[in-house]
Amino acid sequence: MPKTKVQHLKQWDRECVWHPFTQMKDWVREEPLIIDSAEGVYLKDIDGNVYIDGVSSLWVNVHGHRQAHIDAALKKQIDKLGHSTLLGLANTPSVELAKRLIEIAPQGLKKVFYSDNGSTAVEIAIKMAYQYWQNTGRRKKTAIVHLSNSYHGDTLGSVSVGGIDLFHKVYRKLIFKTIALKGQGWEAVANLENLLKAESSSIAALVVEPLVQGAAGMLVWPPGALRKMRQLTRKHNVFLIADEVATGFGRTGKMFACQHEDVSPDFLCLAKGITGGYLPLAATLTTQQVYDGFLFDYKEYKTFFHGHTYTGNPLACAAALANLEIFKKERTLSRLVPKIKFLAEKLKMFYNCRLVAEVRQQGFMAGIELKGRLEDRLGAQVCQAARKYGVILRPLGNVVVLMPPLSISLEELEYLLMATYRAIEETAVPRPFLGPFLSEI
Question: How big is the chain by its Cα radius of gyration, in Å?
Fold first, then answer.
């Protein structure tokens, strides 16, 4: 890229773009890293530097960038139809994708409602759960329960069931009241059981991130806790909403995290990896029971009055179909097994770092928690240091997240881990940078 264009892009970024989850006062002081192209697990910036995409472009990329099968599916679809509304019409890819999602989802999920992102997928589930009880005459069932340290997105409905003060506290006067379960793991399960015994007649739904609470710092559930929550919600006639925006599409080692414990929720919320990291798309899957709770004569106004302009976009659905075809054709989940074992073994070395407090892993999702105060921005420092070794990471506070594309090779995964290790060590004991030392790591 010509040097003048590079300079202009960096200047325009500082002048025009407001980046998400970013303190812009800090951002404009630094040199912006602008990605221009990608191939496989690698990203290339406008200066020509190449990096391993260590967080799958925020947990969305599955089979690598410029994946030939998805590229071809999009090119084929663009020659047929770019977009057509799902309000009062249908389109071919959205119908085909709905059928395929139901085939691979936990048993009992029969209907697919499309939207654009994880926040809306969760918000739709909450609204459906709430309205179902109103439609069917049980108007006291209005409360929504969620876990402490939960994160389900950034629209106000999703913020209402969020429990991370750093993200959500400032909006408390804008959102509806919910019930936050105290504690983690089995303590949360015990608190749920007590709550449902006392107040189930007023509770509409429980919303959870199955097995891993991602944005909270990769907090991993104890085995059996999810299954017990499903048993409790079913016993007390409360809907279970499983937010698999982050955990879905192979991230935990199975297609969906719920499948580790044979759990079938009342709502399954999907996004991120659904299109293989290509286009925005989300889906909220639910049961025949919920769907039937909205079947009334029009004059009763019990329709689900919710929709988005680009709901069921044909291009996004075509990408999602191609994504699922690759899972089957390349046996992605079975080929992931040795990579998960390799990751688990290599993560043990991080306990040798004096800056590391704890390492957490579920499948191909890992979080390395650092010792220190949040204001010290240790996670951000480590991620900045990792760039010198050709690795892009993204922290959650003082937790360094590792979530590469499922297609990463063992050699690339080892490099990612060693570069992260070196970055943590340098952050603990800063030293002059003398070069990438690729032969050493």
Answer: 22
